[in-house]
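re: ur question from earlier - yeah i can do the single chain one, its not a big deal. heres the input i used so u can compare w yours
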Amino acid sequence: MSPLSINQDQIYDVAICGGGLAGLTLARQLKRALPEASVIIIDRQTLPLPVAAFKVGESMTEAGGYYLGEVLGLTDYLEKNHVVKLGFRFFFNDGSETFAERPEFGLSRFPKVDSYQVDRGTLETDLWTMNLEMGVDIVEGMSVRDILLSDDDNTPHTVLFQRQGEADSQAVQARWVVDAMGRRRFLQKKLGLQRERTRQQFNAAWFRYLGEVDLSDLVPSTDVEWHDRVPSGRYDSTNHLMGPGYWVWLIPLASGYTSIGIVAHEGLHPFETFNTYSRAVEWLSENEPGLHRMIAEREPEDFRVMRHYSYTSRQVFSAQRWACSGDAGVFADPFYAAGTEIIGFCNTITIEMIRHDMAGTLTPEQVTGYNQFVLSYNDALTDNIQVAYPFFGNPVVMTAKVLWDTTAAWAFVGVQMFNSTYLDAEKSARLRAVTAPFFFLTRRMQQVFVDWAERSPGRLTYEFFDFLTLDYLYKLRVRNLRADRSIDQLIADQEENMARIEELAQVLFLLALEDVMPEHLDQFQEPVWLNAWRLGLNPDRWEADTVFRPKSEPRDIREMRRQIRAMFKRKESGNEPAQEPAKVSANGMSFVNETLELATAER
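and the output i got, formated as tokens:
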């Protein structure tokens, strides 16, 4: 619609400031949930949006895929117009002479629950059209100049906006206003709600090439065994090249482009070493020479950077009828591609608040709970990822950590998205009664991973870790990534999840012992059953920490231990480790300790 045709007397139910992924998905979800609601989007972009060279945030998790596919009704659209994702895949830079020798963590076949890689330009253009067809008013080519929040429950908010390059402003009124303007973080800054996460910082640079950049091309076709491990090829995965303090993504786009990005810990890889395209190419030549050879002669479609990307907020929702969604509120570390699922959480909560407001039942206590849910999830996710950057190059420790994090994500986050339990305070309280011990267990395990990485001599390695061949993990995925579960079923599921994750903690601890101090393994004779909440790699503390005095009834972990251990092989000659312990740098360990202390203090 033309900006000049806006009815100045109309009061919209919802004004969405920003027409990116967060704003467009919110509008569609609103019209599906509340068809009678009047919705307007104000955005500075104009159609058509550029294909490929537009925005990052192209990969997503199963939870994000469920939000777009099932909650928004886009499954057929996504399968037709975007890339169905072959999971995430990691290649660890452990000093192997050839790419085929690098330890590989990933799937051999597509899983049953889909996730996707999306071309953001295509997706947002199509959502724009879908929203117009559903009756959403969209004002394009306009920049929001101010949001005037009302203190009166009976008075609407006012959004002031203007066309770029013009002096005159226009206004629209709405009962609810949502900031979906991304890293501009308009409401957050206007209300003084910014909160940075750590003193250490992380940066990213990315670019897109026309055509495929397929890592399989780094392995000769004569290496049939390597290629046959993944019959459909590896290109459709979100591929990660991992090294100390960094990861590099490669993401396929259905528009025929490949997205490549560098993400790094500033203390270990200064931003100035990859903040221009020429520097990024040089950085790749030093850190990922195989990829460098593949792209050295190509011309990029774009090049963009994001410095100090992580942040959060003191508040993203308000009973005063405003909300922030997506990057306008929080930005987690992108390592696990959780951006779309966080948008899904924020949008679903926003609609629930609007629904309660319409019914006259919205309370500050509800809003406080919603804020706590989103902010604590963003912070915990970011802490869990960023504590590991200094040892991203250790394939065995990082594989154990990714296995742990994936188990936790499917067990606890997936359940939330697929069943919207976070919207119901009573359901949430009943589930927390079962899952509350997990927080203390994962804090303990994150410390185990840190200590393991600091002391690892590299006794273990592997070739290919096909993680869904693990029986416990496959069953856990099937059990948790499904919708329409009753509260009694969910409680039973979470009791089962807690049992499996307690067992996994012990199995990974024993794996760490085999790598770091195998001489102590004889203290852990079968059948092993330990106090998972007191595990640690200091033998002098085991007795005082009651490691050998578990509080739960013993269970048989031999099969889980056998399946996980079978993925690894020893990398040593005789009884001596193949290499000296790969110490994490002092700068890196300073950050690790700071992150662990910060996360504990804030909880």
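The CA atoms of residues 28 and 131 lie 6 Å apart. not sure if urs matches, ping me
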